[in-house]
Specification:
- Helices cover 50% and strands 6% of the residues.
- The termini are far apart.
- The protein is mainly α.
- It binds carboxymethyl coenzyme *A.
Length: 430
């Protein structure tokens, strides 16, 4: 049962409604606070701010719990596939056989990029980062579907747009990789399933089909699935923010790709491998690096460690660590970077610095090692994260667009700049 909270300000008492989420999360509703009291709240980095109500994903960071639409991530990782999970997130339910077939067919029917888009790829310099190409090209796709721009008609074309975006992000990603390596592009094959098709587009040669090892396909599918949603993180909140202006789905999700790119967010998977490679090249077993990561003046952080919400082991990291051991064993790969990662983890978890701050491995700590074993190049790691996250972004986009009382997102600020200055003509300026 929710009750009201009381806030005393300048001798007056304000009554603020509270609410409780279905998993017991408690919130104070301050939406009328400014109108009533003239005060706003300040929460830099939004650590204490609920920006929305959502039915998609639940995280309990203290207990290390993650559920998509109520289903534990561990169960989905073991029993499900990325495409099934995409349906679960976007449509709100696990698909039955007919629904899954329909959804898979929609993905296949929409996998080809408009042929004219090939010219856009030509404009990027060789070695352009594929995240830059990905975000630009997702936005460019919207130019070919003018009906997208009328977002008041969103409900009429939502399913097809969602399928188009999920399917084409994978085509764009593979084309971006081929382009950055000066390789001819591979078109998708309708007979292949989602993840197998991506591997084909990435790695088939004109004279030799990429041999699709089921272990490799399953491992990459698992990575997509584990990244599929993660509630209100930096990129998803960006998607929701852009969507709140009634921008189209492609524009909103392209913004999500940009937000994901940074090394504190999705870019951490690339940064982890770079860090492990540096440690390996320097001959350090990780101990020196741990000391540097504890020293705020060193400019180093233990990448792949820590999380705003998890103050416990990230459940995705647990699954990925196990998968990492299995995949490397099956592919008979002995990667010294995995040994360094394990030593780093072991050492960090004994250090008071990490214990006191509740810093544990996150999803990015081991995912790069699997991707490296699968032959995915380093600069594509964050792109893989983006492909995986697309269903989550689309599900959040849908929630924003279908919220009847939805308002544009527009935070306030506490202004701390100069007050009422006069314009000084250029000749008189110092
Ligand atoms: N290495 C060393 N110290 C750290 C680390 C780290 N990886 N992460 C946090 N800290 C320290 C931080 O300096 C601070 O110390 P103090 O209290 O003495 O000032 C304390 O721990 C709390 O950290 P914070 O920076 O206030 O935490 P945050 O919630 O603002 O940031 C984070 C979360 C994930 C950005 C941060 O932990 C980090 O930079 N980690 C490394 C990058 C990384 O792995 N990012 C991927 C996150 S998971 C994938 C995703 O969803 O994006």
């Amino acid at each position: 049962m929710s009750s009201n909270a009381e806030l005393k300000l300048d001798g007056k008492t304000y009554s603020l409604p509270t609410l409780i989420g279905t998993e017991g999360e408690r919130a104070v509703d301050i939406s009328q606070l400014r109108a009533q009291s003239g005060h706003i709240t300040l929460d830099e980095g939004y650590g204490n701010t609920g920006a929305c109500k959502s039915k998609i994903t639940f995280i309990d960071g203290d207990l290390g719990i993650l559920r998509y639409r109520g289903i534990p991530i561990e169960e989905l990782a073991e029993k499900s596939t990325f495409v099934e999970v995409a349906h679960l997130l976007i449509m709100g339910k696990l698909p039955n056989s007919a629904e899954l077939k329909r959804f898979s067919d929609l993905l296949t029917q929409n996998e080809l990029l408009h042929e004219d888009l090939k010219h856009n790829f030509e404009g990027f310099p060789r070695h352009a980062h594929p995240m830059a190409i990905l975000s630009s090209m997702i936005n460019a796709v919207s130019c070919f579907y003018p009906e997208l721009l009328d977002t008041s008609m969103h409900k009429n074309h939502f399913e097809i747009e969602a399928a188009r975006l999920i399917s084409q992000v994978r085509t764009i990603a593979a084309f971006a990789y081929r382009k950055s390596h000066g390789l001819p592009i591979n078109y998708p094959k309708p007979a292949l399933k989602y993840t197998a098709n991506f591997l084909h587009m990435m790695f088939s040669k004109p004279y030799e089909e990429y041999p699709l090892d089921p272990e490799v396909v399953r491992a990459l599918d698992l990575i997509f699935l584990l990244h599929a949603d993660h509630e209100q993180n930096c990129s998803t909140s960006t998607v929701r923010m852009v969507a709140s202006s009634k921008a189209n789905m492609f524009a909103s999700c392209a913004a999500g790709v940009c937000a994901l790119w940074g090394p504190l967010h999705g870019g951490a998977n690339q940064a982890v491998l770079e860090m492990l490679g540096e440690i390996h090249a320097s001959g350090d077993d990780g101990c020196k690096f741990i000391n540097a990561a504890k020293d705020k003046n060193s400019g180093k952080k233990l990448m792949g460690f820590g999380h705003r919400v998890y103050k416990n082991y990230d459940p995705r990291a647990k699954i990925i660590k196990k998968a990492c051991d299995e995949v490397l064993a099956k592919l008979k790969i002995n990667d010294p970077l995995l040994d360094i990662a394990k030593k780093l983890e072991e050492a960090a978890l004994k250090e008071s610095y990490f214990i006191e701050r509740k810093l544990y491995p996150n999803v990015d700590f081991y995912s790069g090692i699997i991707m490296r074993a699968l032959g995915i190049p380093l600069e594509m790691f964050t792109v893989i994260f983006a492909i995986g996250r697309m269903p989550g972004w689309i599900a959040n986009y849908r929630e924003v667009m279908e919220e009847p009382a939805g308002r544009i997102s527009r935070p306030r600020q506490v202004y701390v700049g100069p007050v009422n200055q006069q314009y000084v003509p250029i000749k008189e300026r110092k």
